[in-house]
Design brief:
single chain, about 350 residues, alpha+beta, Creatine Amidinohydrolase, Chain A, domain 1, Creatine Amidinohydrolase, 2 domains, 6-stranded mixed β-sheet, 10 helices, binds zinc ion
Length: about 350
């Protein structure tokens, strides 16, 4: 990060995104700001976190502030006589405004946070946390197959998944579990309702566990009963698109190229109009950690990146299919981290 900052010609950098704060400092609380320069890290937060900070960030300088951190930060910036200080684009506007008013001697430079890109590539400890989250997520899918029946509601399926993950050691669910059956499965980010799953209906389940701050994210589409010819055809198209894309994952290939492999497969099968979203995203401290496998993404894959591969076909009024797995880019190719069964018909 310091290399990037010195080439951007800034003397210090203010980190306000709480996940970036965690990534750089190890602090797991919900409120803090970092001021990083070439030889120090100062962490500004309120009295609630003093004890936690002493444990989690022993090498940082801890600075206690009241609710608004900008006044103290401006004093530190002025005292250090920094000429240019970088800020993350995502800084709240009122903090930016206040900091700008108070730091009259210093030029404040809003910029893309160098930490966002650093987070794409995971080290061994991070990969271990994601593996653990993926394992819990797989166990939850196995469990949910035992409770699926035609009269269970979407909401109850979601509750089963979430409770199971918590009981199995997940810190929390990675995001609000999506369970969407019948025509609702055509909405990629539907909310779970009191609709019953029924027989012969496509049911999309998208969920994941969080472990030590890191996420897993999986989607399975299932159907109780016997699928129609078209349901099976759409399902196989998505499955083959996913396999085609995954098999091409290796260091040196662009995210956009992987996205096109799946997209072209779906287009050739005649469903191109029904696949609107990107193929996959980075996975890490955030569920969406960079739009890595997206249309026109120029991001070059590197060993250590973890991405989802999740093609989908969504036909309004008819239903949808999405299949999503988590994939680690390795030195020689890829490793799939989620192993849940991929049969469409479950009963
Ligand atoms: Zn998902
Ligand atoms: Zn996803």
């Amino acid at each position: 990060m310091r290399e990037t900052l010195s080439s951007a010609n800034v003397d210090a950098f203010v980190v306000t995104d709480i996940l970036n704060v965690r990534y750089i400092s190890g602090f797991t609380g919900s409120t803090a700001t970092l001021l990083v320069d070439s030889n120090s890290i100062k962490i500004l937060t309120d009295s609630r976190y003093m004890e936690q900070l002493a444990q989690e960030c022993p090498s940082a300088t801890i600075i206690q502030v009241q609710r608004n951190w900008t006044k103290r930060a401006a004093e530190l910036i002025t005292d250090a006589k920094y000429l240019r200080v970088g800020l993350e684009y995502s800084i709240p506007y009122r903090d930016w405004e206040s900091l700008n008013l108070l730091s009259v001697e210093t030029e404040l430079v809003p910029m893309e946070s160098p930490i966002n890109q650093l987070r794409w590539k995971k080290d061994d400890v991070e990969i271990l946390a994601i593996r653990h989250a993926a394992r819990i997520t797989d166990m939850a899918f196995k469990h949910v197959l035992t409770v699926l029946r035609p009269d269970i509601t979407e909401r109850d399926v979601a509750v089963e998944i979430e409770c199971f993950m918590r009981r199995s050691g997940a810190e929390s669910e990675a995001f609000d579990t999506i369970v969407a059956a019948g025509p609702r499965s055509a909405m990629p980010h539907a909310r779970s309702t009191n609709r019953r799953i029924g027989t012969g209906s496509l049911a999309v389940m998208d969920f994941g566990a969080r472990h030590d701050g890191y996420h897993a994210d999986i989607t399975r589409t299932v159907l109780i009963g016997t699928p129609s010819e078209e349901q099976q055809r759409v399902y196989n198209t998505v499955l083959n698109a996913q396999r085609t894309a995954m098999e091409a994952i290796r260091p040196g290939v662009s995210g956009g190229a992987i996205d096109s492999l799946a997209r072209e497969y779906i287009e050739k099968s005649g469903y191109g109009a029904y696949f609107g979203h990107g193929l996959g995203h980075g996975l890490g401290l955030d569920v969406h950690d960079g739009a890595i496998l997206a249309k026109d993404s120029r991001i070059i894959l590197e060993a250590g990146m973890v991405v989802t591969v999740e093609p989908g076909i969504y036909i309004p009024g008819w239903g949808g299919v999405r299949i999503e797995d988590d994939v680690l880019v390795t030195e020689n190719g890829y490793e799939i981290l989620t192993h849940s069964d991929k049969s469409l018909a479950v009963r």
